[in-house]
Amino acid sequence: MAFPDVYTASPDRYADASFRRCGESGVQLPPVALGLWQNFGGADVFETGRAVLRRAFDRGMNHFDLANNYGPPYGSAEENFGKVLHTDFRTHRDELIISSKAGWDMWPGPYGIGGSKKYLVASLDQSLKRMGLDYVDIFYTHRPDFDTPMEETASALAGIVRAGKALYVGVSSYSPERTRIMHKLLANESVRLLIHQPSYSMVNRYLEQGLLQTLGELGVGCIAFSPLAQGLLTNKYISGNAVTTRTDAEDTSFSKALLSDANLDRVRALNEIAKGRGQTLAQMAIAWTLRDPRVTTSLIGARNVAQLDDSLDAVNSLNFSTDELLAIEKYAVDTPNIDLWRPVNSRDA
Ligand SMILES: NC(=O)c1ccc[n+]([C@@H]2O[C@H](COP(=O)([O-])OP(=O)(O)OC[C@H]3O[C@@H](n4cnc5c(N)ncnc54)[C@H](OP(=O)(O)O)[C@@H]3O)[C@@H](O)[C@H]2O)c1
User: I need a labelling partner for 62 at 20 to 30 A (CA). Which of 139, 269, 323, 340 fits?
Assistant: First the structure.
């Protein structure tokens, strides 16, 4: 595929960039990273996504998070990212942390979902092909699978590291208990559990109920996904002028139950606190997820360059006064009945 213009990365890209150590590992990650779950698929405008990726890299944001089934259609976010890697970032591979995952549904039949070795190994091979890569930096088991022994998932992850197809491995949406077990199983194979990817935002505070403490104790890093609760924690739904939103998609991942009057009242109150800090609500919501140093990175999505720029500017004001935190505490209410991504220990929990 031919592209009209040639990209030259900004030579100043790291001038204002900062990094945070991922747990007790040697890896440093940017405080805000970009995920390609939505807005980068075959159904989206390629050049818009490409502009976002370029802008992110020009600002020293060097961690891009993918998964086998990001799109739609499944696989297309990795394909599009592979094109941009090839045309724009080819000479920058060693500056990038690229992650992928397998665990949710990808192809039909029993070997296209779950935590089996059969699925994880085949899926990563497919992901590498789609992105044109020899290895990913981080490969995740995307979710706990209660039908697969954890020993099998751990040994598949360790084998993937030994085969050189991933430098590090991580887990997503694992409970504290399962995280401890996976950490131990991997350690038995001399492989570090680098990172956990849980959902965390002012409306989903599961992380604070034991998981963050576990990660701190184990020295495992934490990359918190959906810090904006998919757009709820921005001014878009309270401003009355949301042009296009995630809620418009036919098969949306955004639970409209989140847009209750009670939630929107809280969002309005949080927006006022953000204004008092001289930040947008999106920026404050991201900064809030980073207030504990055990959270390495806040993992955002962005529909366009304007959203990305707004969100990346969160790092300009990461500190909170005690009064601000107390004020936020009143409105940052956990909503366990709505959120989809809450780890459990067993399917009966
Ligand atoms: N491990 C897992 O199971 C899992 C699950 C979910 C996500 N993730 C990862 O986390 C990443 C981020 O998830 P997410 O997209 O839900 O994150 P998010 O940052 O909470 O939501 C992104 C959405 O918020 C809106 N938005 C972003 N910046 C904005 C701004 N500055 N002002 C106003 N609105 C703004 C946009 O919504 P509109 O599109 O409506 O404009 C955007 O699409 C994913 O790409 C993926 O890598 C992982």
Answer: 340
Cross-strand partners of 171 = 141, 196
CATH numeric code, 20-241+259-331 = 3.20.20.100
- pLDDT tens sequence across 296-322: 999 999 999 999 999 999 999 999 999
Q: How far apart are the first and last CA of the chain?
A: 49
Record the tokens describing residue 182, joined without a space: 């996976």
Residues 224, 200 contacting (CB under 8 angstroms): yes
Count the alpha carbons within 13 Å of 254 in the hemisphere toward its beta carbon: 20
Evaluate whether 281 touches 272 at the Cβ level (below 8 Å).
Answer: no
Distance 135 CA to ligand 1 centre (A): 25
Residue type, 13: R
Pocket test for ligand 1, best of 38, 202, 243, 316 (most atoms within 8 A of CB): 38
Spans of all domains in the chain: 20-241+259-331
- CA-closest residue to ligand 1 atom 22: 301
Rounded to whole angstroms, the Cα distance separating 239 from 100 reads 35
List pLDDT tens digits, range 131-181: 999 999 999 999 999 999 999 999 999 999 999 999 999 999 999 999 999
